[in-house]
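Q: Could you write out the predicted structure for this multi-component system? I'm mainly interested in how the pieces pack against one another.
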Amino acid sequence: MSDLTDLTIEEAHALLQRGEVSSVELTQAHLERIEAVDGLIRSYLTVTAGQALDQARAADARRAEGEDTPLLGVPLSYKDVLCTRGVQTTCGSRILEGYRPPYTATAIEKLEALGAVMLGKTNMDEFAMGSSTENSAYVVTRNPWDTERVPGGSSGGSAASVAARLAVASLGTDTGGSIRQPASLCGVVGLKPSYGRVSRYGLVAFASSLDQIGPLTRSVTDAALMLNAIAGHDPRDSTSMNVEVPDYTAALRADMQGLRVGVPREYFIEGMQPAVEAAVRAAIDQLAELGAEIREVSLPHTDAALPVYYLVAPAEASANLARFDGVRYGPRVVAGSMWETYRQTRGQGFGPEVKRRIMLGTYALSAGYYDAYYLKAQKVRTLIKQDFEQAFEQVDLIACPVSPTTAFRIGERIDDPLQMYLSDVLTLAVNLAGICGISIPCGFDENDLPIGLQLIGPAFGEEQVLRAAYAYEQSTDWHTRVPAL
Amino acid sequence: MIEYEPVIGLEVHAELLTRSKMFCSCAVVDSTEAEPNRYVCPVCTAQPGVLPVINRQAVEYAMMVGLALNCTINEFNQFARKSYFYPDLPKGYQISQYEHPLASNGWLEIEVGDSTRRIGIRRAHLEEDTGKLFHVGDHSLVDLNRAGVPLLEIVSEPDMRSVEEVEAYARKLRAILVYLGVNHGDMSKGVLRFEANISIRPRGSEELNTRTEIKNLNSIRSLVRATRYEIQRQIEVVESGGQVVQQTMGFDEDTGRTQAQRGKEQAHDYRYFPEPDLPPLHISREWVAEIGERLPELPDARRERFIQEFGLSLQDAVVLVADKAVADYYEAALAAGGDPKIVANWVTGELFRLMNTAGLEIGGIRVAPEALVELIALVEAGKINNNTAKEVLEIMFETGRGAEEIVEERGLAQISDSSALEVLVERVIAENPQQVQKYLGGKEGLLGWFVGQVMRETKGQANAQMVNEMFRKRLEALREG
């Protein structure tokens, strides 16, 4: 039997089902490893050890009663942007220090109903704004493959916790690449579901029209299991779609016969790390080997994705973050007047990247600038969406890199916002179009840093994305490598 | 000298009295009574991560108002965020409608004096109310019970040309909201609030001049006072060679004056943008038709019916339908057997007088419609006269007791026994020979004096009509005899 912390959901479930291991043992093993390793990795902001063991005991009791679900007793981590009743939820920000939500996010509620165990809440860029998790107001999370490097972001804590075997799987959120990019940089699987596939209720909003919750796992099957658990319409989220949820594991097949895969010429950009391009091109060849028909496609408005994203997302964020005023929750810095109290509370509570984006967004929405910036961005967003719609008339999937580079060094890009923004240049358009995408391991660079392959599907095309990802995964062994810690 | 006319448009904020709030399932309660912050949840307190869900009932109420105001109910509806910071606004933005309101291009007919006028309705859109701040010493407290209550903003065209028209519009609109059952119209609870946009111009001119906006007018009385004051103020500004400055003003109830609000509060850039948490709301034509069929009878229709069915004068009908509760009371009285015209006279006369004196609305009085009809029946049967009936009504109004009971207890029944009255008539004639001579000498006007003597004798309980007739017959007999 392998180490308990190396198990996938699928493997853990099999052992739990056969009674070879209890949830308490599994949970305990993870808590011990967190104790041993997370001092270095810093993937967690909060570890809920006591509660986790309570949940594990409850899961074991449910199993003893004859109950079984794929997640019953499986220990998971959740990005700290997801509300958990009574458990501190900070979004990586000082402005929510000590905040204990009065309710739990729908996605987590669903996992809890299936008996999943929460190990704790993972680190992130403040309010999910960033690509390295360095914008956390609390700690710097380290990449398990090279602790001098970033894990990516903003779901860097979630990705690191899964890669470092500090959780079986995790929930992250993806607004412009925040699941896929850290998954790529940490060598795990990260799925961004289509907009409306998973309820956003309880996800502290960064950009409401872009945010989506998704799983970070160590296998494609696990990603399918997690999506099964969290997908579906939620009456509390009017943007969650009432589209039937298939059994995503049923779609998983080891071949790609009949699937047409498009390769967008615009996604192999100048300045891309050669090892990344080589690994992704090799992966595409492998897809062909598996029976896929490869075609070149064009997404002509790709260049516009970055500027459009940096108008739309900050504009929405500027309103979404207005509620953090110290009146009802979070620390309040009391000053001379009401306005001064606002200024001090927000001035001290938010970090520099959050302030930058609030200002960007406020500007883009201001009288006299709205048409030129926000409105125009929305129009171009429609063009980007149409690019994909046209491409998906010719192909079933699109294959491309996730991140132009592998994990960069801590501190390397933190002072250069534009350079940092480029980390997401290949993932942003998927969010703008509301479609789905996955990152799966497809190789390593010269420094033994993981490289991710991005497979993009149309809206509610998660089945074909997972099927292709699974076929590729089963024909390679990149996912079997474990970072040495 | 130039004669000026005001150009006035009104914005009315009406809370929609749905069971739950606009975007969450918290109860809509009387926020002037409820324990602070009791009717709140994660959504209306804007906890991180929550999302709004549109209240279908609020949409239907808004559609009803839109239809009653002859508006187009728009198919494509979009909510928008209106951003500003204030502690009574938990999200830091209000969810409202901006470019795509629910209703637009309607009108409302008002009566002023003998004429009727149509006032254009530009739009009516849905939004959510804010919470309330209480200032205690040097700090403030926030109550979020009201935060998220559905609010309908009804914006008129600048079509009103006098204070009287403003008042008539406000009253008519209020009546319609109450008739529709979407608002109880009690302005002391803050469920109906006004803002007036006012400019002036020389009469006959078609230009639109710089306007001022008076905010937070919480009663029709304040609206009327503030409007009257502001028109005069603008005339004085212009007459003295100045210019009206575009500004937001407040109204000071104590001084009766409008005052410019501080710059900070008017320098808002609300940064509207479509609410990404709510997909556009499509209102099907079938839905509109369904709501149209459910519309209750509105004030104008009821007025016409009162005229046609009950033969009332226009004046009486207008007065009776202005307040739905009054019209309901009136019809309940008719259902109890009252005569339409006589009941109308009693309601608009004595009952209104008593209500005004006591400062009560009709819903708060102790005289049931059936009791009023019982009182009227006593008059009709000749058991009491009109003056006694007024006294009895006053007692009924104060005590809530029945007319018959009061008449009996206090011995107020009218004396209609002709033999008893005959004795009194004879006595008065016998005791006042001089007056009798004067009468016979041509001063027939003294008849009333004779009647008065008997009335005094009977403490007003004699059947005046009978006594009158008796004296006339008796005195004329003397003349002939």
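A: Regarding packing and overall arrangement: The first helix of chain A runs from residue 9 to 18.
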